[in-house]
Every structure is written in structure tokens, then in C-alpha cells.
């Protein structure tokens, strides 16, 4: 009995700090639902038996208005529903706000695989290794159609869109391997776009990052691209062409020629590479060529990692 | 042969021809403008589509009995769930109660001789058949694998298959919806019999009226959306695909702006039917008539404001998500009010458990489960885990199949004597209702659990730990299939062999029961004058009647 119960429980693994909170919310919703369903079912069964045709029950119509009961069964559910809304909304709000000190992992989705890049340079396909107890934020983009990064054991899911970065974050809380599913239908092999998320001890995770298929760090790869693809030809203090210097730009507001400002986040930098005329920096002319079709999503994230790494090094000259 | 003609001649004089016998040629059906015949034409057509959609579901459930993809390839599976969704939503559910029962009953119930625009009515059927033909062409010529939701940029850029043909089929079918909705709105406004005030209307009419409003207001948005998908797919106009400068989420906003109200197109008519059935078989005036009526209006209005709850994990703004979440909770209130009022109607009633009542009670139970699980999905954080899993599949099948299809079958049984002039075999019918109820729950309840475990929808293959529940679901589906085949058989059988029906076999109130079964071509010899409230049932009087009958027999 005990064995089968734990066996059952293992069907609903819980491996992130969201999971228990989500499960309590689930139980709350389930409790309200069972209460309502039970009340309706009992009424139907009791009335069905008591007032079946030919029974001797008293059928004298009641006098008085039905208004009070209508008001009661309108306002009581309303109050309960508003409470449920607030409960779920607060949790959702927290899930949408990654903390600053997170381990950042980059995810590129494509038909039909997950390509993962760790900042240190380690890459994986259809596998994700994360440290237990530390906040992990996934920065995700799709190379083709919409996918959705879903780890049931973490109770997290976030659509992965083409042309736009989306994020999700969680704190892994239990060592083990868990399913990773694509949850948004993405074509022929949608059901095979699955993988494994492995939660490791932080120390083991640190070792894991140093071993195996370790390339150079994302920023270093990005630095190489920055030079080989010609970015450095203009975005440099020694350049003859006037292009904005990118040192320290990441995360800062950028004044635009149309009078607006925009925060230089991943999305902005990605747009500036692929759609250079979308946002023209104030004081510069729109001369940058587009790199659309010349850079893959992974290369773009590497370039962004490099530009980000320039933040605290004001005098870097590539 | 000649003696048969001779014999038939004197008989023809005695009974006045009803709408079924006033013309027996194929032409008399194809060129009819009689709302009752149009209803029957729709019934035949959507039954065909139900069979097609049902066969697709059957194949899927067989495939899903094992984790591996051993019966068919992934492309074949993906096409099957697209066929199932497209056919069931647009060519069965949306036209089911409105176009079959609505066409047949609206003029009868409000005391009119036909709908406002009889020729537009038959035209809408032709448009529907034309759209359906396009969809069938798309299926037969190789199929579509986008799912019924046609999410971009998959549908507009990446998918193979006949997306445009399918979209055009749905687009054309949409015009049939608009024509029908318009017709019903005008009919209900302008053609009510003298004395048939708004608050004397049967609740079925309120349901049809609000459904028609949604049909007319929402369907054009679907048309626009599908045209935009076709433009991007055919000509590379950048609307949804970001590599062309488009926005993939724009599609979801447009699609759900139509499709969420469309969910209410697929349940409001069922609620209308159930109100009729509960009142009749409990012999009670519906509890809180005005609340139930206005709940339909509230659902129709709020239904337009909740589309974003399909997009909580799409990267929609957190604040937009909150607005859509609270509005989704609010829209559930009128549905809850309806369930409570139906339940309260049973109180102090004189309840009979004929087949239609069994369907109605089944509807209340299954709709309640469907509605309550909707609360899980309206809850922002909970939806993150449950959306796009089998929990969603189970939830909307409880509403669409457990709700709408049960109501459709209940209504079909209730008005079958009126439509066909025949009685169906009651015991067999009750048995089928029971089989459908059990088969339905066995099919779809395990899917809730699968969803909580995290099994995503639209998966051709799946990890092994999901197998047990999938086997249960497939077993349930086979029981459900038996439950659906039975009514098809005995209703057909009853057309020839069923007992002839009296004008009012259920002792129901309502103008449709005042005329012979089946009704004559022009419904009312003289337009009735309505002087009383709807559902003028009296449980006490019904009981007294039973007692006096028993006394006579003793």
C-alpha cells in the first residue's frame, strides 16, 4: 500500500520552489470545486429522489421572493472567485520577475530540438543541467515557429517565440532528472521535441561546467564574431564611420533620433543587428546594413553576451 | 403498382399534409424555404460531419493506447487531430443546436410561420455545404497539420498541406453562420406572435438570440484572421511571421477574439435546451427565469472580453494577463447562476426521468465539472502549469461534448416526436444516455489527471508513465462510440417503425406543442395570441392528475 502510494506520488514529481506553492493553489482550487460540485450533485440526487413523480413529498409552493437566494448564490461565488484570482495572480506576478543574481542560460528552440548555451561556454542539446537551490533564468528564443518550454516537475511553462526573447525562472529544489516537453504544437515531430532537465548539487554543477564539451565562454565567442563579421569595423573609437560605441551600453537607456528612448536589453540589441533601421540612435545616420539571414539565433545571443560583457570595461578596444 | 395508387388516393384527403409529406421529391427538399426542412437538412449534414470528426478521434484514441507511434506516422496523427478539431468545431458544434433545433423551433416557439428571411435560410445551408466541401477537399487532397487553432507562423509559413483550402472552407462556413445569426435576430425581434413579450419567450429563444449576436459580431473577425493567414502564406505579406516583419502573437489575439466567444456559441444553445428540458420534466416554472435569461446576455457580453486567457504563457503583458484573468472569473458567474437555478427548479417538482431529462441532468453534472475546471485555467499561475496539456483537452471536452453534445442529444430526443411524428424506443434511449454518460467520463476524466501530470496536448508519442491513463481514456472512447451509434440506429429505425406521436407527448407547455406532430407546412393555421408566462407548469396539479389516474385504474 505504502509502496503504491509513493509510486503514485512519483507520477507528480515536484522539483522547484514553485511546485509546492502551485500545488497548494491547486488544492485550493480543487477544494472549492469539489465543494461546489458536491453541493450541486447532492441537491440533484436528493431532489431527484424526494420529488420524483408520484412521491408523497410536500410540493406546496413557497411564498416570498427568490431574490435573496439569487443574490446569495451570485455574491458568494463572486467573493470566492476574486480571492482565487488574487491568490493565483500574486504567484504569477512573482513567477514573471526573475531576481538579479540568477544563473542565466540561453535557449534556442528550433524544429525539433532545444539548443542550450551556458554562459561559461558549455552547450547541450535536449538536455539542461541546473544547480539546486539557485535561481536559474532561461532566456529563450525560437529560430522558426512558436515552441513552449515546459518542465512539469517545476510547474513552469513559457512560450518560446521567434523574433522575441522570453524568460522564465525557477529555483530547482530536488536532485534528479525531469521531463522537458515542448508544449506548443510546432509541426511534425512536436512530440519528439522533448528532453531532460537534470538538477545537480551546486558543487557537482560547478565541476560539470568545467568538464566535457566546454568551449570558450559565450562572450568570448561573441567577441570573435564581433570582429570576424565586421561589427568592430564601425563600432570602434578608431573607426572612420560614425557608429555608436557599445561599451557599457547594455541595460542603459539609449536616446533615439525620433526623440524617444529605449533600454538597451537583449531585444533591442537583437533588433539593432537584424533591423538596424528600427531604432536609430540620436545623432547617428541610418547606415548600418542588416545582418538578417547572416547570423543564427545562437550567434546573436553570443554577440549580445559579448556586448553585455563590455559593461564594466569602458576602455576595451576590440 | 396501380392498385397502390388507387388505394392511396382516398386516404390523401383525410390528413392534411405535414411538412414532411407536402412534397416528397428531392427537389422539394433542395429548394425548400421551410425553416423546418432547412433544420432537417442541417441535421443530415452535421451528422455526416460528426461521423467524420468522430472517426478521426477514434483513430487518435487507438494510436494513443500505446506510448510509441506504432499505428501511424506523426504527420498522419497531426492531420487527424486537425481534422477532428476543424470538423467538430466549425462543421458540427457551431451549427449543431442553432442550425438544427434553432431553425426548426424558433418560428414554432415564438408563433411565426417561418423565419424572417426564408430564402437566406436555405442559402445559408448551401453556403455551409459549399464550405464543408472545401474542408473535405482539403482533407482528402492531403490534409492539414496545423491543429484547429492555425497558430502562426507555423500555419502561415512552415506547415505543409492545404492550409489555404481549409481556411477558405472555414471562411465560407462562417458566412453561413452570419446569415443564420442575422436571420434569427430579425426573426426574434420582428416575428413574435401577439402577446409574446420578451419575458414570455422560452429560455431557448433567449439562448438562440444571444448566440446569434455572437455569431454576427465575432465571425467576421475570424474571416479577417483567416484572410490574413492566407495573404501571408500565399503572397509573403508580413503580418504574423517575424522574419517578414510580422508579429506572431497578433494572430493569437485575433483568433481568440473570435474563438473565445465561439466557445459560448458552442454552449449557450445547450443551456437553452437544458432550461426547456428541466422545466418540462420537473413540471416547474424555471427558477429565476430572468436571471437565467440575463445570464445568457452577460455571458455573450463578457465572452468578448476574455480572449487573453488563452495567452497567459505567450509573453503577453503580466498586467494584461491579470485583467483577462479576473474577467474570466467574472464570466463564470452567470454560468454558475444558471446551474444553481436549474438545480433549484427541481425543488418541489414532479420529476420524470425520461430520456431527455437524463441528458439534461447529465449536462448539468458534466457542465459543472467543465466549468469548475475552467477556474483552474482562469487562475494565472495555475494556468502556467496546466495550459497546453491534457487538462485543457479534458476541460473543453467536458463543456463541448459533456455539455453541448449532451444537450443536443437531449433536445433531439425531446423534439424528435415533433420533428418526425414518431416516438423512439424509450428503454433503449435511456440505456444509450447512460452509456454515453459513463463512456464520456471514462474517456475524459483520466485526461484531467494526465494534464496535471504534465502530458502535453497534440503528442503523437508520449513517455511510458502516461500509458495507463491513456488506455483508460481509449477504453472509454470505445464505450462512448457505442453510445453514439445507438441513437443513430434507433432514431432511424423509429422513422418507419416508431409509434406515432401525439401533438404533445410530454405534456409540455410552449407553442410548438400546440400543433400536430409533425407540424403542417405553415405551422399555425391562425397566429396564436400569447397570454401567459412560459413554463406554466404546476407540479402539484401534475401529482393530483397522477393520483386520479391511479384511482381510476384501481
Task: Itemize the secondary structure elements and their pairings.
The complex is a heterodimer of chains A (318) and B (554).
Chain A: H1 2-9, H2 18-50, H3 67-95, E1 103-110, E2 113-117, E3 123-125, E4 127-131, E5 136-142, E6 147-151, E7 156-160, E8 166-170, E9 176-182, E10 195-200, H4 202-210, H5 218-228, H6 231-234, E11 253-255, E12 261-263, H7 266-274, H8 297-309
Parallel strand pairs in A: 1-5, 4-10
Antiparallel strand pairs in A: 1-2, 2-3, 5-8, 6-7, 6-9, 9-10, 11-12
Helix pairs in contact in A: 2-3, 5-8
Chain B: H1 2-13, H2 26-30, H3 35-63, H4 74-110, H5 118-140, H6 154-158, H7 163-190, H8 203-235, H9 248-265, H10 268-282, H11 289-302, H12 318-346, H13 355-378, H14 380-386, H15 390-420, H16 426-453, H17 467-497, H18 539-553
Helix pairs in contact in B: 3-4, 3-5, 3-17, 4-5, 4-7, 4-8, 4-15, 5-7, 7-8, 8-9, 8-10, 8-11, 10-12, 10-13, 10-15, 11-12, 12-13, 13-15, 13-16, 15-16, 16-17
What would you note in describing this structure?
The complex is a heterodimer of chains A (318) and B (554). Chain A is of the alpha+beta class and 318 residues long. Chain A has helices spanning 2-9, 18-50, 67-95, 202-210, 218-228, 231-234, 266-274, 297-309; strands at 103-110, 113-117, 123-125, 127-131, 136-142, 147-151, 156-160, 166-170, 176-182, 195-200, 253-255, 261-263. In chain A, helix 2 (18-50) packs antiparallel against helix 3 and helix 5 (218-228) packs across helix 8. Chain A is elongated and about 100 Å long. In chain A, 35% of the residues are buried. Chain B is mainly α and 554 residues long. In chain B, helix 12 (318-346) runs antiparallel to helix 13 (355-378). The longest helix of chain B is centred in the first third of the chain and has 37 residues, at 74-110. Chain B is globular. The interface between A and B is large, with 80 and 90 residues.
